[in-house]
Design a protein that fits this description.
There is one protein chain. The chain is α+β, with helices and mostly antiparallel strands. It is about 40% helix and about 10% strand. It has nine helices and seven strands; from the N terminus they run E-E-E-H-H-H-H-H-H-H-H-E-E-E-E-H. Strand 1 and strand 2 form a beta hairpin. It is elongated and about 95 Å long. The termini are far apart. About 20% of the residues are buried.
Length: about 300
């Protein structure tokens, strides 16, 4: 018999149900009432028959123990891994690290999200943290450690759309000229980003050999994580070709004349790959945001 109920006298919980798990081990639980014992055993056997049974002891691992086993096995980019580790270290592990997986409840997740919102954390960052927690617990569900994902259905604050600034052709030219005055070569970076549509990592990894007078094939990108640059496949994992305007192709031809074919197209001020932290236009802004005009204020 796969399951059985036993009555034991002189015990606080005299009714005991037990059954044999798929791995051959015995699972048991005691109750004070016979009807509760029967309901529990019926539910467990039903899960076994439908293939939905989970080992009750598996969920006893803490979230930290689970992450230490789960994270190294993910096939993700170095930058993505660094972002995951940052969220885990700063937001998720302080709240759920010592908690057993089976003890994490939807109410706990809601309180966690509310606390981050009260702290003033941005909606996008809260959403990223919730998504990562849900991904980790979702894998535990897939592996049969949990019966369901306790993050599913828990909502996060709504993102407030940020006001975007868009430059016309003349403003792009002005920005490129201002950047070039601040650092030689920075103007070309602005023009490529504005007119070709490369991602920052693609431009950072672009080499002279990847450029011809009219077309450029992007086969490599650079990402930054933990202060280190890593060269690899683009975000889409596919090589792509982008077209440059003829006037920009001429400028690129002049720039390429003195470069070795394996040299980076654009470099940092002291050589080497560019990084967002050492790119001048992040400090040079010829078009600062205007403060809203206050009624009654005297015009200058």
């Amino acid at each position: 018999m796969r399951g059985a109920i036993q009555y034991r006298k002189a015990r606080a919980s005299p009714w005991r149900a037990r059954y044999r798990a798929p791995d051959g081990s015995e699972v048991s639980r005691s109750f004070t009432c016979k009807i509760d014992t029967e309901r529990w055993l019926h539910g467990e056997l039903s899960k076994l028959n439908r293939g939905l049974w989970n080992d009750p002891s598996a969920g006893q691992a803490t979230f930290t123990e689970w992450v230490e086993a789960w994270l190294p096995g993910l096939d993700i980019k170095p930058k993505t891994r660094a972002g995951y580790e940052s969220l885990l270290r700063s937001r998720i592990l302080p709240a759920f690290g010592p908690v057993e997986l089976r003890r994490i409840a939807p109410a706990d997740v809601r309180e966690w999200i509310a606390a981050m919102a009260d702290e003033g954390l941005s909606a996008s960052r809260i959403r990223q943290a919730r998504q990562l927690l849900g991904t980790a617990l979702g894998t535990a569900v897939t592996d049969g450690i949990l019966g369901r994902n306790r993050v599913t259905g828990v909502k996060v604050p709504t993102d407030r759309p940020r006001q975007q600034r868009f430059l016309d052709a003349h403003q792009v030219a002005h920005l490129a000229h201002t950047a070039e005055q601040h650092q030689p070569g920075a103007g070309l970076v602005i023009e490529i980003l504005a007119w070709v549509g490369l991602r920052w990592g693609e431009l950072t990894a672009l080499r002279a050999a990847n450029v011809d007078p009219l077309r450029r094939r992007v086969s490599e990108a650079a990402t930054e994580g933990r202060g280190q640059l890593v060269f690899g496949a683009p975000k889409s994992h596919r090589t792509r070709t982008v077209v440059t305007p003829s006037w920009l192709a001429e400028n690129l031809g002049v720039h390429l004349a003195d470069l070795d074919t394996h040299a980076l197209l654009c470099t940092a001020p002291k050589g080497g790959p560019m990084r967002a932290s050492n790119f001048p236009p992040r400090r040079v802004d010829p078009y600062p945001r205007r403060r809203p005009h206050r009624p009654g204020a005297q015009d200058a």
